[in-house]
Design a protein that fits this description.
- This protein is of the alpha/beta class.
- The chain folds into 3 domains: 211 residues, Glucose-6-phosphate isomerase like protein, domain 1 (Rossmann fold), CATH 3.40.50; 196 residues, Rossmann fold; 37 residues, no CATH class.
- Helices cover 45% and strands 12% of the residues.
- It binds 6-O-phosphono-beta-D-fructofuranose.
Length: 507
């Protein structure tokens, strides 16, 4: 049934971020009662441990220190902080020279999962804030997939003599990443030995010395690969991959936007950390996000959350949150190995809202399945680089986007009895609105940190370990077997898998 009565306002505001949970159909009293039922008794201690970097990732026998990695009081901050800053400044000023003496013009971040998604998302979102005086233009590209799909597009538009590759990998052993590195290396050495007439040794040495930066929690592996210590950046093993964009893994953010923007991003996240640690329950953004999410999952049995940004700068947010949430809380057993008898983390999906309206929104409006949604919108955008007339037109476009966000969200909440809806539009889909007065590096950092703390809190409620990923590790192991079978041309799995392995034989 469409909803007749109007919902009361429920909002929390923090530094220009308005978290509106009016459309969750939950009162402060109800959420407080639900928290009393579902938050673990030691929640405050666990949250304090996260803030202090003493929370335990039991299965991997490590602490959890991503919060420290953005705190200005922390010894963990960026691991090699001053080296990080110097590298970015050299690259962005044109003072980093390639093997043949030319300034670097392109940076390619090779990494996957947490070593790709955060840097990619944030570089894209904050590009316009690039604040360093940059007389020299460097472009940052991202390559992640093991099939080489992105290398096909990047290699033709960059020059081996003026390109630096960042090998971003916490483990410094991920197959996907090194498959891309291997191809990039062959491509570069071919150029150096052909065009530049270097000997194979000189070419390899030049590549290692001038065209590689390693970012990893395993410095020994970077050294073994041949990356000079001065071009290595480390971070602590206790910073989880999907929580690592605040650490040296954020190098590509800093090469795209400058060190200043990277600092502001960290500061915004640290503000959200303080808020999460101190704000009372009904004014605590991450806590409310977590509790509403668990309520929707358990009491309303909704198994998915659509992430719907109405600002193109948030384009990569849905993919980022897929890893953050689904790799953390997509589990069925507790941290100590017992089966969990409630549903756990939902399926996270989504896409750019305005375009989604012309694609999947019909299903959200009137389809069969229930869903939750997070709408994300930016109320004002400055466009100072354009003429006044273009600025005015862009401001109208921003209003158009806000209006559409509010309209579709309202309809999905209240439903409709209009004839146009053919009398079948119940609405009642619980959703949040995260509205930013302006997008800034600080507010962007705050939103991402809020989602991290939501995931952390939900993990505590479900008593699972949000900081490991055993299923993915198992998948990697099985893939070693399928690759060996493809090389040996002898599948031994089942009819389906063996048949496709057979088809990989050379024709
Ligand atoms: O997908 C599994 C995973 O281990 C993620 O947790 C991680 O972000 C990604 O692979 C990449 O790992 P690494 O940074 O070690 O290359």
């Amino acid at each position: 049934m469409p909803r007749k009565e109007l919902l009361p306002l429920q909002q929390v505001t923090l530094n220009g971020l308005i978290f509106d949970w009016s459309y969750q159909f939950l009162s402060p009293e109800k959420i407080t009662a639900f928290a009393a039922k579902r938050l673990p008794a030691n929640f405050n201690e666990q949250r304090a441990a996260l803030m202090q970097g003493t929370f335990k990732n039991i299965s991997e026998n490590r602490k959890v220190t991503h919060v420290l990695s953005r705190s200005s009081h922390s010894p963990f901050r960026n691991g090699d902080d001053s080296r990080f800053v110097q590298m970015v400044r050299r690259l962005r000023s044109g003072n980093w020279l390639g093997a043949t003496g030319k300034p670097i013009t392109d940076i390619v971040n090779i990494g996957v999962g947490g070593s790709d998604l955060g840097p990619l998302m944030t570089s894209f979102a904050l590009k316009e804030f690039a604040s360093d005086v940059q007389q020299h233009q460097v472009n940052t590209h991202f390559v992640s997939s093991m099939d080489g799909g992105q290398l096909y597009a990047v290699l033709p538009i960059v020059n081996p003599e003026t390109t630096v590759f960042i090998i971003a990998s916490k483990s410094f052993g991920t197959l996907d990443t090194f498959a891309n590195v291997d191809t990039a290396k062959i491509w570069a050495l071919e150029h150096f030995t052909g065009q530049n007439k270097l000997s194979p040794d000189q070419a390899e040495h030049g590549w290692l010395e001038h065209h590689l930066i390693g970012v990893s929690a395993s410095p020994q592996k970077m050294t073994d690969y041949g990356i000079p210590p001065a071009h290595q950046l480390t971070f602590d093993q206790s910073v989880g991959g999907r929580f690592s964009m605040w650490s040296t893994i954020g190098l590509a953010i800093a090469t795209s936007c400058g060190v200043e923007v990277f600092r502001r991003l960290q500061q915004g996240a640290a503000e959200m950390d303080r808020h999460f640690a101190e704000a009372p329950l009904t004014e605590n953004i991450p806590l409310l996000m977590a509790l509403c999410g668990v309520y929707n999952r358990e009491e309303r049995e909704i198994n998915n959350l659509a992430v719907l940004p109405y600002d193109g700068r948030f384009r990569h947010l849905p993919s980022y949150l897929q890893q953050l949430d689904m790799e953390s809380n997509g589990k069925q057993c507790t941290a100590s190995g017992e089966a969990i008898d409630t549903p756990t983390g939902p399926i996270i999906w989504g896409g750019f809202g305005p375009n989604g309206q012309h694609a999947f929104f019909q299903h959200l409006h009137q389809g069969y399945d229930a869903f939750c949604a997070d709408f994300i919108v930016v109320l004002h955008r400055k466009a100072k680089q354009f003429s006044p007339a273009v600025q005015a037109s862009l401001a109208e476009q921003q209003e158009l986007s806000v209006a559409n966000c509010l309209a579709h969200r309202h309809l999905m909440t209240y439903g409709s009895e209009s004839e146009q809806a053919r009398n079948h539009y119940p609405g009642n889909n619980p959703n949040n609105l995260l509205a930013l007065v302006h997008l800034t590096p600080e507010s962007f950092g705050a939103i991402i940190a809020a989602y991290e703390h939501k995931v952390f809190t939900q993990g505590l409620i479900w008593q699972l370990n949000s900081f490991d990923q055993p299923g993915v590790e198992l998948g990697k192991k099985v893939a070693e077997g399928t690759l060996a079978a493809i090389h040996n041309k002898n599948g031994h799995f089942d009819a389906s898998t063996d048949s496709i392995i057979g088809l990989t034989r050379d024709i």
